[in-house]
Structure formats: C-alpha cells, structure tokens
Amino acid sequence: MMAATTSRGPQGQAFSVTGQRVLVVGAARSGLAAAELLVSRGAVVTLTDRAAAIPGEARLRALGVTLDLGGHDGALFTGADLIVTSPGVPPELGPLAAARAAGVPVIGELELASRWLVGRIIAITGTKGKSTTTTLVGRMLEASGRRVLVGGNIGVPLSAHVDESTAETLHVVEASSFQLEATDRFHPWIAALLNLSADHLDRHPDEASYAAAKARIFANQTADDWRVVNADQPETIALAQDFPARELQYSSTRTLDAGVSVRGGAVWHRTSGGELALAPLSAVRLPGRHMTSNVVAACAISALAGATPAGMTSAIKSFTGLEHVLEFVAEIDGVRYVNDSKATNVDAAGRAIESFDDVVVILGGKYKGGRFEDLAGPLSVRGRAVVAIGEATRMVQAALAPVVPVVEATSMAEAVGLARGLARPGGVVLLAPACSSFDMFPDYAARGRAFKEAVLGLRNSG
Description:
16 helices; 24% strand; 3 domains; 6-stranded mixed sheet; alpha/beta; 33% helix; UDP-N-acetylmuramoyl-L-alanine:D-glutamate ligase; Protein-Tyrosine Phosphatase, Chain A; 462 residues; Rossmann fold; single chain
C-alpha cells in the first residue's frame, strides 16, 4: 500500500483524511473498497450498514475499521468529519440529511477515489451500453500499448485502483447516475454520454433529475477536455451543450461531416484535416444495432485517448460479449436461450428484442420507470409471447396482452419452463426484464445466473 496520506489528483488539488473521522455508508463492494482505502490513508473509519452481517467483517476489523451494523446510528453521521456513500445509498436517507444540515461533507465513493488518482480519467455514462462500451475502450487502449485500469460501476470499484494509479495510467470508468449525483470535483479528461432514456425513476424523482445526474459527468471539465456525445440522440447533445469541453460527436446510422461515423462498412474519424479509417464493421461479432452503436462510441472515445486503428480492430474482433448482456446460454431442441439480465430498463429490453426473430421474452421485476407499451412495436414484429415475472407482472400484462400472449410465472425456473413450451424451433427465449431485480434477486447478476441455471437444468434433464 502507498504510504502517503496526502496526494494530488489530475486537477492538482491536495486532499487528506489523516486523523479525520470518516463514516462509510453502505457495505456493498464500493463501500468496502472505500473503507480499506480510507484506512490506508490515515482516516479513523467507521462502516455502517443496515444489514446485521456483511462480507469480510474479520478483515475489516483487522484493518482497524469500526463496524456499525443492523441499523444507522445518527450520532455517527452528525459527528463525522466526512461521509462517503456507496452508490446504492439514496441521498435523501434521513441521517445523511441531518449530517448535511450539520455541515458534514457527503461524497460518493467514485468522488473519493478520483481525488487520489494520478492518471487521467475517461468516464462513460448513459442509460444503456455503458458496460460494453467501457470494456471495449479498455481493450482498445490496451491493444494499442497503453496502461489501462477499467473499473467504477463495472468490475472493480475505483477505490481499489488508487494505489496502482500512475501518471501514465488511463482510468476507464463506467459511471452510473447514482455515482455521478454524489460527485463534487470529479473531473474526467474524456467524458462520454452514450444515450438517455427513462430509467431509475424508483430512485430519481423524475426524468429531469435523472438527466441532471448524468450531466454531472461534464460539470468539472475545462476547455482542455473532451465530451463525446451521440449524434443519433439529440438529447445527449442538448444536455452537454452548456459545458466548456471540446465536443466530438459520433453516429452509427449516418455519415457525419465532422466526428466518428460509419461509411462503406467501416468506422471513420473525419476532421477538417481529413479522415482516418478506425475499424471495419466486419470485425463486430455480436448482433444488433445497439452493438454497432457501442462499437462506434468506443472507437470515438479511444481515438481521442490515443488508440490505434490496429488496436481498435483487434479489440473488436476478440470481443464476444459480457456476462448477462445478450449472453448465449444454450440451444435446446432448436431454441436458443439468451441472457440479457442487464437490460434493466424498457429501452434496453426493446433493443434486445429487436436483435432476434420469433422471441419469447421473460419480462418483469421491480418497476423503475418507463412505458412497457413501448415494447409493443418490436414485440408485434418479432415477439411470440411474453412470460411476466415479479412485481411488475400486472403492468406487463396490461401493456402487452393486446399484442402478444402474456403468461405469468412466480419463479425463474417456472418462467423458463413456460417459455420453453411457448417457443418453437428456430426461435429464441430471451431474458430481457426491463426492470430491476430487487423484488426477487439481490441484483441483476443473480437473476441472470438463476436464468442460466434453469436453462442448463432443462438441457441436462433431456
């Protein structure tokens, strides 16, 4: 571990927590990583969580972290010098409001870690496609010989990368709205907004608040930085236009006079000085127009960060997808089973449905905003039936029963069994819930694993 307790991030601002009482709220992976980082930097750390037991308790206590479990002691909040929240902790939590009223600074884990990074930050946000695009950017830069660490909302929390950060490191960071709303100084060199549609309205009070949280990715950029926005989504351009960073637009559907776009089966970067072919679309191995958009976005971001066309092409060719993102699971009796558990909003589910023909969709969960009626169009063309699960079952039935048959299941195993009976050879059973998982599962990954286990159980049973 690094011995220094004070350091300067890319903005050159000193930050120290030596001897300070720091309260970490939330014992998910980001909170655990923040607690360990803070202890290593000389803070007196308490970690609080409503759960009575959390992973790694013995290790945390051995490191010197005090644990406050099974609830929240309000005195710890108002008596802290600094509070650091995990992304899953809502900002309106009562004890946090009391702490703010008492003048205690409250920041998120992403903000905390960014203050100690030495390398430059490439931050990527959007309603869908963040994880795929972030992964592709990391691989494109690695294949081009750059030193890269990928983390944030995907994989490893940013706090776990602080001690590995050097001046040559490029930190490729997936940033969610939950993380961005808890930022203050967070300053990406390159910030990308991929798209914007209704999401997380169970957490954000309205769509405007959700958009404002996303826009914070640009808030601390200067004229020396870059913002990357999707020309196929005017909403992203409008949201970013009042910030000072230089703008690069990209499009996967048309050729741009300036920016990164598609022409003649390849991705091109066109500037006033000419144009450069970045990668052939023939290198893309996964289906769907959303995947093409992700690839074009990754090329745009990576080109700014110094990736080479050869590095971009190599990364695209070797990319076969992420777990729980249009993940092929098995083929049984001529029916393909695909896990897109990460399609946690209506727009993402629609894109998944559009990627296949003759689809039986497992849809539902804990509703978090959006209109299920928006899926009627793609289902009327490509859908065979819907299996509804979770708290949103009645909403799914009301919205989609006029378009396709809708049946109800009370468990993932039952849903897969019903879908098997509805599917036909040559078709697809697709898990694309358009909802969060928290009514039935701890997270989308657990939901995806349950789907895969049920599918493999079918296959193994013959």
